[in-house]
Structures are given as structure tokens and as C-alpha cells.
Amino acid sequence: MDEIGHFIDGARVAGTTSRTADIFNPATGQVTAKLSLADAAQLQSAVDAAKAAQPAWAATNPQRRARIFMKFVALLNDNMQELAEMLSAEHGKTIEDSKGDIVRGLEVCEFVIGIPHLMKSEFTEGAGPGIDMYSIRQPVGIGAGITPFNFPAMIPMWMFAPAIACGNAFILKPSERDPSVPMRLAELMMEAGLPKGILQVVNGDKETVDNLLQHPDISAVSFVGSTPIAAYVYAEATKHGKRAQTFGGAKNHMIIMPDADLDQAVDALIGAGYGSAGERCMAISVAVPVGAETADALIAKLIPKVESLKIGPATDLSADYGPVVTKAAQQKILGLIEQGVAEGAELKVDGRGFSMQGYEDGFFVGSCLFDHVTPDMEIYKQEIFGPVLSVVRAKNYEEALDLPMKHEYGNGVAIYTRDGDAARDFASRINIGMIGINVPIPTPLAYHSFGGWKRSSFGDLNQHGPDSIKFWTRVKTVTSRWPSGIKAGAEFSMPVMK
Ligand code: NAD
């Protein structure tokens, strides 16, 4: 049985506590490793290493910091297959999907190779007589990241790449479900030339997170996970004087207008609804056809496609999606499907009885499709995070628009239409952070920023792109005047521009 410890001060170290968590292979249901859960003393050793290393790292010129990421990107590409297999073995998603998880993180590492340019600041010559004014961006010091199970490569990289490129030390607390890839990423960053102590991985659970949130030497916290924990982490981090950005759950709708290309919309719904077993914060979980005719045609086209989805372990290269992450996740999803049936939604494709031959103990969930779902049902209100698509019928555009507008989550949304005016009106009025126009999963690329609205996000700066440079740095503004102007004498009133 493998034992997974932590990555502290440039090396893998064993856990020092008796508290552990089981790591599963979700396809077989078997325990594959024991993960050590850190206590306050182990976190302290990471903070000590970070404090010792960070000043020299911040003083390293940004071109040299960028070169570490150039090398790291090359190493990610060289190790892509090994990383993808490691990721799939703990998460369950297909190997191709795992590669996508890694590549979407790699792209943020490519983005931060531009750090010499990204950290350039503002300068005003002659802000007053003989006075120059400039602002500079400096690293916050030690940053921490707490990440979810569903993107164990991408989301850690979304956080540590900009944090480290800006000159910070970074402590990652990855999901306790799939920590092996984050540990390997830290190793590869060392191989790329990163000094020890700048990227560390402290594994753990709530206790470890609470220790991070209370630690006086950690200045900024980034979190991605479910909404109740995102709200909690935001409140705790800010209560302890830290800068925080925390991202939560989602219920992403796709509106299908009567003029949409229905075949295109159906293909988009299949990929965005069932890919990665629905365990994506940008998954489409609600389809909103506008008008009864659109709804009937959509359902007729969806049913055979949902029925023919191929489910299998990640090692089956022809599988469309794999198991969900844990037995608890599987049971929660099945419970919500039961509730949907009990509440009166029509289960058009019933995946409840699905069992994978040869993998009977795996955490598989068959594909489900609900029609006639209404906003008062739990399957509409809650994030199911499984291979379940709900169809909510709307009479007209305004009724369709109203649904995502009134939902508590505001991560992503999509509209399928051929009408530019409808698309433009939709993008302008909707209260959601990321909008797709004939694009089902509008995840912004690395050089734009990622984040939702409403209860999908807490804090005011998003992930990656320009926002990430702002989040991981502090602004300092210098007003300077050189000797010739200094003899004017004391000024007692508020300085204003003369
Ligand atoms: P989770 O909230 O269970 O866990 C996320 C992290 O929080 C983990 O590192 C975990 O160890 C820690 N944690 C769990 N319980 C805690 C507690 N009580 N106190 C402190 N820390 C705690 O989320 P998950 O199941 O790993 O991930 C799935 C969720 O993440 C979904 O809701 C999904 O929508 C969301 N997500 C959001 C985004 C986004 O950008 N908005 C991206 C990916 C995933």
C-alpha cells in the first residue's frame, strides 16, 4: 500500500500524524494508497521553508522566474502520458480528458512566462513640480491554495503559476481524493529549477485548511470547491486579515432558441452534460428549450444519444466517461435521481441500474435524462455533479432568461441561436460570469480571467489572466521629489495638485 506524505522544502516527506485518508481507484472501488493528513506542526515546517526562500525568489528578476516556467511547460509535455494516467487512476476520468485537465493548467504556465511584461506598472512624470509618481506591484509573500478533486492538475496550476511567477512562495492543499498529480507537479517544478520552499504541498482535510486559514504568515488564500466551503473559507480567511478569492459550485443552463441548429445543440449538450461524468463546474446540467416544438424535437434527438453513451474505466480508450470520484458521490447522485422521480420529473433515460461488467465495485453512474423538470424541484436547485441532464421547458425567451437569472449559482451559461440580436441581448442582461454563444463550455483561455457571479464566487478578483497578477501582488505607490523642490517649507494643508 502506497503512503503519500507531503512535499516540503524541496522533497517528499512522510506524514507525522496518525490521521490518514484512503485514496481509491474509482473504477475498481479499491483503496490504492493512504494519504497522511497534516497537523499544525507539519504546516509550520512548510511555512518556515517558505519564509526562508521567498525573499530571494522575489528578488530574482522576472525573466529568470519566467524561464522556470518555460522549462516546466516542456517537462509537462514530456511527462503528459504518465501524468494523465496518474490523474485518471485517482479521479476516474478518461485519459484524454485527463490530458485536457493538464493542458488547461499548462496554458496558464505559458501565460505567466510573460511575467516580466505582466508585472510592469504605471509611471507619471511630472505629477507636480519636480514630482514623479509610480506604482509597483510586489508579491504578497506566502500564498495558499485549496483545490477540489475534479481538476487536480488544472486548478493547482491556475493558482501556483501566477502566484509563483509574481515572486510569492505557495503552499498547496490539494483535494484529499487525488493528491498524486499535485505532488508530481511540485517535483517537476523543482526539476525545472524552482528553488526549494517556493512550491510545497501540504496534504490534509478540514483541520489542515483551518490551520492554513488561521496562520498569520499566509497573506492570500485562493480556494475552489463547493459553495458552502467557499463561503466558509472566504469568511474565515478575511476574518484573519487575508486576501481571499473563493470559487464555488454551479448549475449551468443552456438555452436553445427555436432557430438554433438543433443537431449542433444536441452534440454540445451531450459533451457538456456527460463529459467527465458531469463532474465539471462548467458542465451543462440544465437544458432550456424555448417553445414546445423545440423541446419535443430536442428530447427526441437527445434520448438515443444519451442511451448510447459509452461508460467505462479510464483505461478503456473508447469510453465517453468514467466512474464518479467516490462511493459517497455515487450515492448522492443516485439519491437525487430518486428524488427527481418522486417530485414528478419524467426520467426519459434511466441509468439507475447501471453496473459495469468486471468493475462491479466501481463508482459508476449510468446516464440519466430528465424532462419536465421545474424550478421548485431539488434536482433543479442542487448541483448534482453527475451524469444527469435536466430539461426545463420555457414558453418564450423571457421565461428562459429568467431561469438562470434567478438561480443562486452564476458560473457559466450558454445560448444556442442563429439570431445575433437575441445572443447580444442575452449576454448583456444575464447575471452570470461566463457566457457561451453557440459554445457549450465557455471556459476562458489562460490570458482572460475565469470566475462566476452570485454564489459561484466570493471576492472580487478572478482566476488566471490579468486578475491573477492583481490577486497575487500588492500595489505600492511612490511619490518622489528630488532636492531642488525641498526648500519650499512645510505644508500644513492636504496636498493637492497646484
Ligand atoms: P469540496 O468543497 O468538497 O472540497 C474542496 C476543498 O475543500 C478540498 O481541498 C477539501 O479538502 C476542502 N474541504 C472540504 N471540506 C472542508 C471543510 N469543511 N472545511 C475546510 N475545507 C474543506 O469540493 P470538491 O467535491 O472537491 O469539488 C467539487 C466542487 O467544486 C463542485 O461544487 C464544483 O462545482 C466546484 N468547482 C468549482 C469551480 C469554480 O471555478 N467555480 C471549479 C471546479 C470545481
From TrEMBL:
Keywords: NAD, Oxidoreductase. InterPro entries: Ald_DH/histidinol_DH, Ald_DH_C, Ald_DH_CS_CYS, Ald_DH_N, Aldehyde_DH_dom, MeMal-semiAld_DH. PANTHER family: MALONATE-SEMIALDEHYDE DEHYDROGENASE (PTHR43866). Residues 18-478 form the Aldehyde dehydrogenase domain. It comes from Aureimonas glaciei. One of its GO terms (biological process) is L-valine catabolic process. It comes from the Bacteria. This is methylmalonate-semialdehyde dehydrogenase (CoA acylating). Gene3D superfamilies: Aldehyde Dehydrogenase, Chain A, domain 1 (3.40.605.10), Aldehyde Dehydrogenase, Chain A, domain 2 (3.40.309.10). Transmembrane segments: none annotated.
